[in-house]
Amino acid sequence: MSVSHPSLCVSSDQMENIASTFPLDNSSFSSSLLSLCPTAATLFFLPSAYALLFLTALPGNILSLWVFRRCISTVSPTHVYLSHLSISNLILSLTTPFLAAYYAWGSVWTLSSTWCQLVLHGITPVLHINIYISIMILTWLALSRFASLIQHTHASRPNRCTTLLPHSFFARLKRTSFASRVCAGVWGLAVGCVVPVTIIYSVKEAVSTKAASRCVEVCYSPAVEIGGSLSASLTVVVITLFFLFYLLVLLSYIMVLRHIGRSRRSTSVATSQSLLGRVLRNIVVIQVVLSVCLLPYHIYKPIFISLANDQRQLTYSPGPDTCKQCHPFSTLVELKNCLLLLTALKGSTDPLMYFLLDKTFRHQTLKLLRCNRSRSGGTKSNSIPESNNTKGGQMEDGNLATATPEISQGSVL
């Protein structure tokens, strides 16, 4: 949206009012004093989408966490990672009702209101912390599956990483105790990186802009949605870390896919071909979902920050209705928020991916929903740990089965 130009005919009383409202300059003012003009995308689509996300993500992740913690007896690093991922998604889902309220009424709330302060100082940090917790857990999950698969499938020649990397590296990745320590470190790192950014973004810069003008006091404002130069610089650092983790996941899966290709050519057992084909399909689906949910926002955000930095240098001529003028970034802010919705959508897609791609999770979930929890016969998990062995000529299939279900279950985004 463009900024409307002031009328040439302005009374002396109006000019005095403008000067008292914008004391920084008698002839121009910063664009941060303009108002964001939300459209139906912000007022109706985003609140509806976040409400729907809450209704699907909350029960889905509660059910997933229950299945991983109570219904699957064999504990592996995969289950440790997935349990923490479900906890992260569950916390993220609890933020969605507040985000729905913010987009619906943020342009009415005052910046000092309780609801606005709760969203800025509480919900915003929690949302971003859990987004980055997810990508870090998925990175270690991919490395764990990579270590398991290349050592438990047979190709015409061993993977080069098995000779370049020390054996202790692969052994450590397959320990549940190591996975638990990694998850604890992930939570600490995410909190340590995101909290300073959100404090500067939502507290210091928003409050300073409020003090600069009585005109911009609503919660949904440029000060909150665009931020300042310092928070933008810190955000770039966080985004850089995201791409580092994303590339590690991508590289791990590319190497797994190459290894699967060699394994399929080197084995003639029909069961092995089927298992490897399933792993191949699941990895492709996982990577597509990961890219669709997380990549668009993190590609767009640096562009948005760069445009905002250039726009801060511009000034605008004051007019009698300056407070009602639309900020030129109103549409770009709405696009940013729609892409942020995609990242939050990951919390709802994870349980669905578990259910569709993993037989063990699907079986246990259906059993749980049918209230059939008989423990007499027990249920063997398809995600058998690496210590399980098979007999004689089925050893190769057993090794493949060891790695395959854990990938389909553990690497789902």
From TrEMBL:
A cellular component term, taken from the record's GO annotations: membrane
GO molecular function terms attached to this record: G protein-coupled receptor activity
Signal peptide start-end: none
Region of interest: Disordered: 373-413
Subcellular location: Membrane
Residue ranges of every copy of the G-protein coupled receptors family 1 profile domain listed in the record: 60-354
Residue spans crossing the bilayer: 49-68, 80-105, 125-143, 182-203, 234-258, 279-300
Protein's UniProt keywords contain Disulfide bond: no
Residue ranges with Polar residues bias: 374-392, 401-413
Record has Flavoprotein as a keyword: no
Name of the protein: G-protein coupled receptors family 1 profile domain-containing protein
Species of origin: Eleginops maclovinus
